[in-house]
Amino acid sequence: MKRNSPGSLEATSEENSIYENMAGMPVRFSYKNLQTATNNFSKKLGQGGFGSVYEGVLPDGTQLAVKKLEGIGLK
């Protein structure tokens, strides 16, 4: 881990690659990949306090739900 700014920690690329290969660990996707998986966020499953949830399918057939955050950090 390295310090990005006082009081915050950021994982190094080496640490990220270790976590990517561990079962059950969160996976990061690019926005473009999420658009593709959700067919441009076309099938809305529901809505919560911070945004809408969409159905998606990864290229390997894995089904997923994607929350698209809305209004975060805006006043």
TrEMBL record:
Keywords assigned by UniProt, alphabetized: ATP-binding, Kinase, Membrane, Nucleotide-binding, Serine/threonine-protein kinase, Signal, Transferase, Transmembrane, Transmembrane helix
Transmembrane spans: none
Signal peptide limits: none
PROSITE patterns assigned to the protein according to its UniProt record, in alphabetical order: PROTEIN_KINASE_ATP
Annotated Gene Ontology cellular component terms: membrane
Protein's cellular compartments: Membrane
InterPro entries tied to this protein: Kinase-like_dom_sf, Protein_kinase_ATP_BS
Membrane topology of this protein: Single-pass membrane protein
Molecular function via GO: ATP binding; protein serine/threonine kinase activity
EC number: 2.7.11.1
Residue positions binding ATP: K68
Superkingdom of the source species: Eukaryota
Name the record gives this protein: Putative non-specific serine/threonine protein kinase
